[in-house]
Amino acid sequence: MEPPKTEKSDVIKGIKAQITSLTQKDELKKVGMMHPNPLEWDSISYPPKFKPPTLHTYDGKSSPNQHIYFFRSQTGNCIDHDVVMTRLFIGTLKGVAFDWFMSLPNGSVNS
């Protein structure tokens, strides 16, 4: 049985994102700009009609546990997608907290 066209389309989009990721990876290495999460995560769209909530930022100067608690309470049930939640979380980091995240080994953040 052949899968519906939307499933095929999603698979093709995923493969294209992985290919793009692989080609970009060499370019990013040249300029020293790699990051811990897979590059293809950056190409995953938010679900239709999803509006990212306004989230508190974390600069590394207060309790990281408190920030995680705030993040989880702010995002609550808004989405059940690990990649999107990770991207939202990364977006809350700034200053030394963001520098810490960017210093993690390439590919160390995954689902």
What do these coordinates show?
- This protein has one domain (5-103).
- It is flat.
- The protein is built from four helices and no strands.
- With 111 residues, it is mainly alpha-helical.
Write the layout of secondary structure elements.
Blueprint: H1 5-30, H2 64-75, H3 82-90, H4 95-103
Q: Strand percentage, roughly?
A: under 5%
What global shape is seen? flat
Order of helices and strands: HHHH
Largest sheet: none
**Number of domain units:** 1
Distance between the termini: 29 Å
Mean of all residue-level pLDDT scores: 78
Q: What's the count of strands?
A: 0
Share of helical residues: 40-55%
Question: Residue ranges: pLDDT <50 for 5 or more in a row?
Answer: none
User: Tally the helices: what do you get?
Assistant: 4
**Which structural class do you get from the secondary structure elements?**
mainly alpha
Features:
mainly alpha; 111 residues; 4 helices
Question: Brief overview, please?
Answer:
The chain has about 110 residues and is an all-alpha fold. The chain has helices spanning about 5-30, 65-75, 80-90, 95-105.
